[in-house]
Design a protein that fits this description.
Beta-lactamase, alpha+beta, five-stranded antiparallel sheet, transmembrane, Beta-lactam/transpept-like, two-stranded antiparallel sheet, 51% helix, Beta-lactam_cat
C-alpha cells in the first residue's frame, strides 16, 4: 500500500493552506514597508518628481527672460520723443544678425524721395533679369538720384522701369506687401509702411534671400553712403560713428502745407549695424520733421544699443 504522505490527494489538500500563508506574508510585508516609508521617508517628492519640478521652472524662466518685448521698449523710448499736435510718425528697426526687430506706429505714408532707393533697386533687378549692366546714362541718373536726390533723374529712371507697374512688380519679388507705386509721374506719392521699408533695406543690405546680386547691392549701398553734405540727417543721427548709409525724403504737401519727412538706412551703433526706417507726416516745417525723424531713429536704435539707460539718452539728445 502507498504511504499516506505519498498520496496525491494529501498534497492537494495542503497546497491551498501553504499558498494562503505565502500570500499573507507578502501582503504583510508590503503593508509594513508602506507604513515605514510613510513614517520615515524624506517628506519631499520622489526623484522623478524632483527632476521634473526642478527643471521645468528653470527652463520656463529662462525662456521667458530671453524673450524681450522690443515693441514695448520702443514704445517707452518714443514716449520721450515730442510729436507735435497733428503730426504722425512710424518707425521700425531691425538687427540683421539676430533677426530681432521692433516697430512703433501704424499706417501708410507717402514715400517722398526715399522711393528713389526702391526705383534703383527695381532698375538693377530688371537689368539682372536681362543679363546686362546699367548703361552709362542710367548710372549717371542713379548717382544724381541717390546722392543728390535729383528729381529729374528719378523721373527718368521711373519711366525706364515702367513707372508704378514696374515698381510694383519688383516689390512683389522683394517681399513688400503694402507699398504701391504713385499714379502716373507722381513717384513721390508712392505709398508705403515702415515695415515694408525694412524689407527693402534687407534686400539692399542683406544677403540671404535677396533678389539683388552682390554687385547690385554693393552699388546701391555705395551710393547711399555718399549722400550730399546738406542731406546727411535723419537715421544717421542715431549712429555713433562713420559707416552709415541712408536716403531721406521730404515733401511739402500742397493740400495741407504740412511736411512729409522720411529717412531710411543702415546705422552703426555699439559695434552693430541696424536697419532703420522712419516715416512721418504733418510737421509744420521741414526742420520740425527732421527733428522728429532723428529723435525717432535714436529711440529705435536705443532698443538694441543701450537697453540699460539708452532711453534716457534719447530724451537728452532729441533737442540737439
Amino acid at each position: 500500500m502507498e504511504s499516506p504522505r505519498a498520496r496525491p490527494g494529501s498534497r492537494r489538500r495542503r497546497a491551498p493552506v501553504r499558498a494562503a500563508l505565502i500570500v499573507f506574508a507578502v501582503v504583510g510585508a508590503l503593508v509594513v514597508g508602506a507604513v515605514y516609508v510613510r513614517g520615515h521617508a524624506h517628506p519631499g517628492p520622489d526623484p522623478v518628481s524632483v527632476s521634473s519640478s526642478a527643471s521645468a521652472p528653470v527652463g520656463g524662466e529662462a525662456s521667458v527672460e530671453s524673450v524681450v518685448d522690443r515693441d514695448a521698449l520702443l514704445s517707452d523710448a518714443m514716449a520721450s520723443v515730442t510729436v507735435a499736435a497733428g503730426a504722425e510718425v512710424s518707425v521700425a528697426v531691425l538687427d540683421p544678425v539676430s533677426g530681432d526687430s521692433a516697430s512703433y506706429g501704424e499706417g501708410v505714408f507717402d514715400t517722398a524721395s526715399i522711393v528713389k532707393v526702391d526705383i534703383l533697386a527695381a532698375l538693377l533687378l530688371q537689368a539682372q533679369d536681362a543679363g546686362r549692366t546699367l548703361t552709362a546714362v542710367e548710372k549717371s541718373y542713379a548717382v544724381a538720384m541717390i546722392e543728390e536726390s535729383d528729381n529729374d533723374s528719378a523721373s527718368a529712371l521711373w519711366r525706364t522701369i515702367g513707372t508704378a507697374d514696374g515698381l510694383d512688380a519688383a516689390n512683389e519679388r522683394f517681399g513688400l506687401t503694402r507699398t504701391e507705386g504713385g499714379d502716373g509721374a507722381l513717384w513721390g506719392l508712392t505709398q508705403t509702411t515702415a515695415a515694408d521699408q525694412l524689407t527693402l533695406l534687407r534686400q539692399v543690405f542683406g544677403a540671404d534671400g535677396s533678389e539683388l546680386s552682390e554687385s547690385s547691392r554693393a552699388y546701391l549701398r555705395g551710393l547711399m553712403g555718399r549722400i550730399a553734405e546738406g542731406q546727411r540727417w535723419g537715421v544717421s543721427a542715431a549712429a555713433d560713428g562713420a559707416g552709415w548709409a541712408l536716403k531721406n525724403g521730404w515733401l511739402r504737401r500742397s493740400t495741407t502745407g504740412l511736411w512729409v519727412v522720411n529717412s531710411i538706412g543702415r546705422v552703426p551703433a555699439g559695434g552693430h549695424a541696424y536697419l532703420v526706417a522712419v516715416l512721418s507726416r504733418g510737421s509744420a516745417t521741414q526742420a520740425a520733421g527732421i527733428s522728429l525723424a532723428e529723435a525717432a531713429a535714436r529711440a529705435a536704435v536705443s532698443v538694441f544699443a543701450g537697453e540699460d539707460g539708452a532711453v534716457g539718452a534719447v530724451g537728452a539728445q532729441k533737442s540737439s
